[in-house]
Structure formats: C-alpha cells, structure tokens
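Q: My labmate handed me this sequence with no annotations at all. I'd like to see what the chain might look like in three dimensions before we decide whether it's worth expressing. Could you predict it?
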Amino acid sequence: MKFLRFSIACLFLLTVLPGQMNAQKPSRVEQLNAQRVAFITEKLQLTPAEAQIFWPVYNEYRRKKNELEQKKIKLLRDYGANKETLSDKEIEKIADQYVQIEKEETDLLLQYHEKIKKVLPVKKVMMLYRVERQFQAFLLQQLRSQRGRNNRQLNR
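A: Here is what I predict for the chain of 156 residues:
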C-alpha cells in the first residue's frame, strides 16, 4: 500500500508540479517538493481521485506562500544590511511592510483553507495542517542530522 501511495506521489510530482524534472540532477527544491508530496500523500492516505484534485490546489497555495516568504526574507535582508543607516521612519515603514506580508499570508491561508475544504474531507484538511508541521519537523531533523555528520567529519 505504501508503494502504491509513493507511486501516486511520484506520478503527480512528474505531471502536476511546476518545473518538471529534466534529465539533469533534480535541484534541492525539486527534491524537497518530491519529499513533501510523498510525505503528505502517505500521511493523508490520499486516494488517486483526491490526489488528482488536491495537488493542483495545494501547489498553487505553496507557490503563493513561497512568494510571500521570499518577500519577507528580502525585507529582512535589506533591513539587516542597512539597519545602521536607516532612520526611525524608514524602520517603521519596513516593520509595517513585514506585518502586512504576515497579514497577506494569513489571508492566503484563509482563502486556500476554503478551497481545500472543497476538495478534501474536513478530517483530511485538519490532518493536512498537522502533517505540514510534521514535515517541517522532519526536515529540521534531517538538517540537524546532516550538520552533525558534517561536524563529526570535520573533527576527524
């Protein structure tokens, strides 16, 4: 059964996700997306019919959420690079922009919450939010593990 879910996830990865993998080695983003698809598909136990209608909606949500995240990252980088020369008024403007982006993220979640409720049973919608957190924890654990291996290799 797990193989079937993984196969379904791979099929959707190759057909639904933007920027389909080419003959070259997949990028880190593509690898993370593939892991996310497999993880969510398995944990939510999506049927093929559910997966077919869920993934386009979810991928659109993730793309828009990532765009907002990139705006926040740029804003914080710009602030960090210039914080010594910025006036209080300029800092206030940056802070206001940051909060506005946070609001846009919340609005986006509300919008896609309604869309996802139309394509998945409500139990799976709630599970999705939990599974997204589990996936983040999984990625953090992988990163910590990788850093630990790298540190051990440097100390040899």
